[in-house]
Amino acid sequence: xxxxxxxxxxxxxxxxxxxxxxxxxxxxxxxxxxxxxxxxxxxxxxxxxxxxxxxxxxxxxxxxxxxxxxxxxxxxxxxxxxxxxxxxxxxxxxxxxxxxxxxxxxxxxxxxxxxxxxxxxxxxxxxxxxxxxxxxxxxxxxxxxxxxxxxxxxxxxxxxxxxxxxxxxxxxxxxxxxxxxxxxxxxxxxxxxxxxxxxxxxxxxxxxxxxxxxxxxxxxxxxxxxxxxxx
Length: 231
Known about the structure:
By secondary structure, this protein is α/β, with parallel strands linked by helices. The chain is 42% helix and 17% strand. A 7-stranded mixed beta sheet has the order 3-2-1-4-6-5-7, with helices on both faces. Helix 1 links the parallel strand 1 and strand 2. The protein is globular.
């Protein structure tokens, strides 16, 4: 029997974060009284992340690990987890502890009320360096203008969606930032909700200048051209 909710968490070298992140998420999902699964996708980690995933799967029966054969990037890990998920509703979050799974009930409530097929978190009180926040605001503004997805924080990975949305997602570099745009282009209704944001607990951010600006710009234009009507 398929679970009601599936949570997908991509992980790359997040040793020290896996246990607290999973523990908090499991507590929130258990509190809903609905069947659920947690899919921990290891993107070819070279630290203790695989061992921590195995420990989490042993501690919480609803958890299972999915390991990519080699490091392929967050987009590939996310898509692999989404396609492996069995739930009617799919949840996603980062594995660095900055997303708060306590916001899932509000995201699910908005999804269940009917107006949206995909509900995206919009981080308030963001706990990142000022330069990263400024670059993110600029990138989000440009993306909204070019793609028209109306999402203010496409980088926030705290999301809830109907499983039908997954079928509309196509592989691309930095897919994690373009899930709302792909969903909107496929005709799904996309909404936003303010969510909390916390400082990173352990490890280092995997995002540099390339991930925050020029690579998203290249992928945005590729997506825009792919959506242009043919003559």
